[in-house]
Amino acid sequence: MAAQVKGEKPHDLNCLTIAELEKHAELRMNKQTRDYYNEGADSGSTLRENTTAYGKYRIRPRVLRDISLIDSSVSIWGACNSVPIGVAPTAMQCLAHPDGEIATAKACKEAGIAMGLSSFATSTIEDVASNIDGHPLIFQLYLFEEREHSRKLIQRAKKAGYKAIFLTVDTPMLGRRNMEIRNQFKLPKPYKLANFAEDSGSSASETVMDGSTPKSEQGEEKKSNGTKGYHDGKRRQAPTGPVSFHTHAPNPTLSWERDIGWLKEQCSPEMEVWVKGIATAEDAHLAVHHGVDGIVVSNHGGRQLNGTLATLDALPDVVEAARGKIPVHVDGGIRHGTDVFKALALGADFVWVGRPVLWGLAYKGQEGVELCLRLLSDEFRLCMGLAGTVKVEDITKEYLVKIDKSGFTSRL
Ligand SMILES: Cc1cc2nc3c(=O)[nH]c(=O)nc-3n(C[C@H](O)[C@H](O)[C@H](O)COP(=O)(O)O)c2cc1C
Ligand SMILES: CC(C)CC(=O)C(=O)O
């Protein structure tokens, strides 16, 4: 908000917007990390459109409504979330700051905001849970072809009190990220894929994107196709050996019939099962049919299939298909509180934010993530008030208008 209210944290005068946060982060990350975090697949058009899609809508503010008491909170997994925003699961946060996911968890606790932890985190499931101290945590699952690895993760998440498993479904293959390949991306020592350390002596720091063979895998990689981790169209063998993300994250065998029932059995009754990476009404219907508890409309931050719809553009169809049956969340391109408002007005129940949190982490660790969450939350509350809404349920499509390139507007 514009004026500082007593008891509120002072503004960081060097960083008043997420755009400024991005610039600060850019200066603090090395090239490998910056490219890995910020890149999209192929030309990056979907990455860009995720953000620009928000510009296709304008807000229709209502006035004279006494907005002196604004409640921006929502209830999620039995807890009060201060705003309908969560921190999306993103891999390897220790690249941004040595405190990595632990700093993010502490910031989420401080802000009263739910957090998603990636299967490929650099902190353990248990450490993150103990640092968020009861506030909702969800675990993002890559369901590996070697299910035993995934089964162990699920059991650990359940024991540590995670509320839901978010199964990522948009990675049957890895999207093509050219800078990642060119930089021969690898997780530097001493960092590890913390949740596989005991299984495999975690070899993340040997994961190389140049087609060369990591030392630990020599001998079993004779068939390397020159772009390790990418698919050459030939039938590949299920990966064995140490878990590394380029080898294990993609799972071309994933299917509704085989995997969702199994996953529900593993999670039930303590944890919900959600699917992350839905982009069509057809798949939303299937998600309902297979009994999942919720959907995240996502294109993986434009990192998987380039050329898909921006998530905001895909959202209305999915909302229509799932209406009244299961909740619909969305992520991708959210960079301002007004974006959150627009996504909610188009029918999302909640949004998740990825890269801005990584930028906060790179800027100032926990304090930077707190700043990121505070900027988005303050902007969202300001937007609610200036649009004439006092409760999150008030935010409906009546508050939006679509504007085309010539400036013509149409009501929704
Ligand atoms: C560096 C990075 C790593 C990510 N790692 C994961 C991951 O491990 N699992 C996953 O499901 N999604 C992952 N995502 C996707 C995010 O969960 C989320 O869908 C995306 O970041 C949202 O877009 P935004 O960054 O524009 O907010 C990652 C995204 C980024 C940028
Ligand atoms: C395991 C990787 C594929 C992490 C990820 O989801 C990403 O980099 O987008």
TrEMBL record:
InterPro entries per the record? Aldolase_TIM, Alpha-hydoxy_acid_DH_FMN, FMN-dep_DH, FMN_HAD, FMN_hydac_DH_AS
**Domain spans labelled FMN hydroxy acid dehydrogenase:** 10-405
Q: Which GO terms describe its cellular component?
A: cytoplasm
Species assigned in the record: Letharia columbiana
- Residues holding FMN: 89-91, 118, 140, 168, 276, 298, 331-335, 354-355
Protein name per UniProt: Oxidase FUB9
Cite the binding residues for glyoxylate: Y36, Y142, R177, H300, R303
Q: Which SUPFAM superfamilies match?
A: FMN-linked oxidoreductases
Pfam families xrefs: FMN_dh
